[in-house]
Amino acid sequence: MELDKINPYVLKVMPSAMRKFDHDISADPKIIKLTLGEPNFNVPEHIKQAAIDAINNNESHYPYYWGYQPLREAASTYYQEKFGYHYTADQILVTVGATEAVASSIKALFKPGDAVIIPTPAYPLYNALTTLNELNTILIDTSDDGFILTPEKVQQAINDHPDWDVKGLILTDPNNPTGVAYTEEQIAALATVLKDNGIWVISDEIYGELTYGQKHYSISNVLPDQTVVVNGLSKSHAMTGYRLGLVFGPSGFIDEIAKVHQYTVTAAASIVQFAAIEALTHGQDDSKPMLVEYEKRRDFVAKEMAEAGFDVVHPGGAFYVFAKIPENLHMNSWDFVNVLAKDYHIGLMPGDPFGDNGYVRVSYAASDEALAAAMKAVKQLVAEHSEKTTE
């Protein structure tokens, strides 16, 4: 049997370039990595203890595929208080991380041939999933609008594809990789054009608790009947390895997403769900000390990168700085990160996998010492390369 006999849409998708790059540079024992969105904070002690208690209490049996009822009730209350979500427990599905939440939602909402809008730069997962599900993808470059998707660009994209059935939009707010966070006014403007065109929104709000100087506002508040919200505990509670995600959606539609979830993974791990109950019941303030540190780190990295000659996108949320490489370096994002890793032992993420090869992404979810060393190396690379190009 030849490889080209398998699903051609799988062959179209390449393994994650981000993960491969991170893996490759990890072989360097001196490497300092600011690559993945991995908080350097540990899981809060009370959450760890809840997981330990679940093990000791033999909570090791199959959970209901929707997730434990106490967890879904806790999620309903928690996110109502945090962001004003209006979802009952029966409108909430527990998934294996936000990645599976997005994947199950896309599979359930769209059929092969439908078109989905993805504003770029964007997390590469979305484009991979639309390809795997045989969807048409419309990429909208937001760089000339401050990395905010405007209603005008949405309508223009629809008008430019009259033969496509544009059914969906994948919105990340706050954004990865830019850190841009939408205002209530920007969300309301988007909702109008989406409602008029009958477009579903999969709103990835995993960074919703990590905003600086502004409150996160969910599009589900103004477009509830056309929105599926994805969230989870990886970023807010530093629980990346626990793989606990949540989907919030309208009655009826959430039931269909749950079917995809059931036949894909059965259920999220039982012990992890007990840890999540604790996080959502008694961990309302767990992200606050992290947020204080992230804001300090954001300001430091943004200042240092600007001093090094980069144009910096001002992050309103998440924990990334997306910075445009100085033109006089004559480097694209892969050139820059490869030289930085090889010669200076610092790992940054290239912008190319996100859709812009002229930028690099810096994750400041790292220690102050790591960030200081990285910024020193970036400045050194810029200075040394600039000297060579002016000789």
From TrEMBL:
The keyword Cell inner membrane does not apply. It is an enzyme of class 2 (transferase). Its cofactor is pyridoxal 5'-phosphate. It comes from the Bacteria. InterPro entries: Aminotransferase_I/II_large, AspAT/PAT-like, NHTrfase_class1_PyrdxlP-BS, PyrdxlP-dep_Trfase, PyrdxlP-dep_Trfase_major, PyrdxlP-dep_Trfase_small. Pfam families: Aminotran_1_2 (PF00155). Its EC number is 2.6.1.-. GO terms for biological process: amino acid metabolic process. Belongs to the class-I pyridoxal-phosphate-dependent aminotransferase family. This is Aminotransferase. It comes from Lentilactobacillus parabuchneri.
